[in-house]
Amino acid sequence: MTMPFLDLRLATRRNGSRDGELMLVSPSGQRWLSAGPTVKTMQALLDNWALQAPELESRRRSLDASGWNEGETFDPDECMAPLPRAYQWADASVYRNHARLIYQWRNEPIPPRYEDEPLVYQGGSDGMIGPREPIVAIDEAHLVDLEAEIAVITTDVPMGVTIEQAADRIALVVLLNDVSLRGLIPGELAKGFGFYQSKPATSFAPVAVTPGALGPAWKDCMLDLPVRIELNGERFGEPHANSDVVFNFAQIIAHLARTRCLVAGSIVGAGTISNADPESGSACITEARVREQLSGVPLDRLRPYLRHGDRVRICAMGPHGEHVFGAIDQQVVIHSPG
Amino acid sequence: MTMPFLDLRLATRRNGSRDGELMLVSPSGQRWLSAGPTVKTMQALLDNWALQAPELESRRRSLDASGWNEGETFDPDECMAPLPRAYQWADASVYRNHARLIYQWRNEPIPPRYEDEPLVYQGGSDGMIGPREPIVAIDEAHLVDLEAEIAVITTDVPMGVTIEQAADRIALVVLLNDVSLRGLIPGELAKGFGFYQSKPATSFAPVAVTPGALGPAWKDCMLDLPVRIELNGERFGEPHANSDVVFNFAQIIAHLARTRCLVAGSIVGAGTISNADPESGSACITEARVREQLSGVPLDRLRPYLRHGDRVRICAMGPHGEHVFGAIDQQVVIHSPG
């Protein structure tokens, strides 16, 4: 069971190993210290969360008292994804407005039972991208899209948990870019087996935060903040992550665990953030294009998908303008193999 | 790069930890020794395959010379899945006859481009079941089915590998039971996002074997042996794993790696084994039921799906009757939570 009062900010530092080094980050996000020899990696912490997270928190409190003087300056360039490789990445689609616009794009009805149970897919979790690493794709014709999303990382979740129990299994909250190759999606989904090639590696903001550290910004098992997306330095969207959602994270986890356990370190997403208000912009290019189409822009004048050299920036801003998870800041690199 | 000449049999022993202890298994499958302090787990070996697998092999050779006297008796009851938790489990469907019969059952056409590129889905990899652990389901009404399959475990696979390069990334071959909840499949696939609840945890035979250890039983990047399935002690099927396949493992891996890297320890399956010859029986109950239907058995007289207490046994027999991967031998337990 997780402790909802835990107040921790964690990240993973590139150190040449596959899993990196677990970093304890200061509440200001400006300083960091190694989590120490007893818990070397994020996965190791999640494996033993009930014992080690409270220990880390008491260490964090001492550091707060001493002003983090022994710490070093936090630099997101040094960060890997909080979990550089994970045993599970399961993503849902709980934003009604996103479903509405995306299925308009696909020219298909919204999937059956969309309002009755979370619509989920099993994503690839073997390699996650750090906040400043490039989005590498092999062909612009694959229509490279960003998708700004919130996810949680769980402790162990037994099969058949209730929604209430599922809420207690949420260890950390993260911000991510679920890069999608829109050009490959229709062909893959037509086969009926879900996404594979169309969902390349996912990118993560550097800092994973406990629900307790979010304070009032964690509400009804959702992040209660807007998420800001910038494309090449310009505002692209700023939808609120807790607006018009069909299901919250506890409900998604309970759905996932109906016939299976989830092991500690499972990453569970809520899908592309989307608000009905067009003023909020979009958290993916496809949705922005559908909105343009609906407002009469001709097909050949719609905004383009991501191109070589484009820069994507995603962050969630707290009430005092602070970057809660740090920022994703990535450049697109089109790189044909061979 | 893997070394095709490597001759290793490996397993994972339950020791109270999440990843177990890596076991070096004798060529006879009768004896084992700990792989030693430098490579404690299967994942650690795969992470550093090029360096550590040859070291393990030279140790295996010394043990062969001394008759494995220092070893202990190999007991599959002590085994976890070879990789108890994995960063990826991607499964294909390459047996033409299985596709033909299954889509007959679904009353749908075989997916588009089935012969042009491997049909694959992203499976859940966070928790794998050992060879003698029960198949736990919450409801017989979910229609619990077995699926006997061969898979490979890869080393690191870069994005965009050729088929030839992909073949060199195959570290190990494994035998598994891809348990499926047939009753949940139509509802999930109708949503278009693939399997989730309908594919609970997968079970594995205890011994993972290098292609080099398979000798002539590894042919054209496929296992060239029949796989025997028994249900409650009776022969259920014995289809050959290298008969009438659309794609081999190198082709599947190259397809998976088109837009993504695969990290070391990715498990890549070929789908439910199936032969056109009805005498070979079936590797899943659904297929056997479709065959019964086609031969005129009325719906209410078809053989049932798995029930509480049923026993499933799966093994692959070498030319001298030896169990190449050891046997999966599981009992079904229906266990409603709460």
From TrEMBL, chains A, B:
The keyword Metal-binding does not apply. PANTHER family: BLL6422 PROTEIN, FUMARYLACETOACETATE HYDROLASE. It comes from the Bacteria. The keyword Hydrolase applies. GO terms for molecular function: hydrolase activity. Residues 89-332 form the Fumarylacetoacetase-like C-terminal domain. InterPro entries: FAA_hydro_N (IPR041072), Fumarylacetoacetase-like_C (IPR011234), Fumarylacetoacetase_C_sf (IPR036663). Gene3D superfamilies: Fumarylacetoacetase-like, C-terminal domain (3.90.850.10). Keywords: Hydrolase. Pfam families: FAA_hydro_N_2, FAA_hydrolase. Residues 8-85 form the Fumarylacetoacetase N-terminal domain. This is Fumarylacetoacetate (FAA) hydrolase.
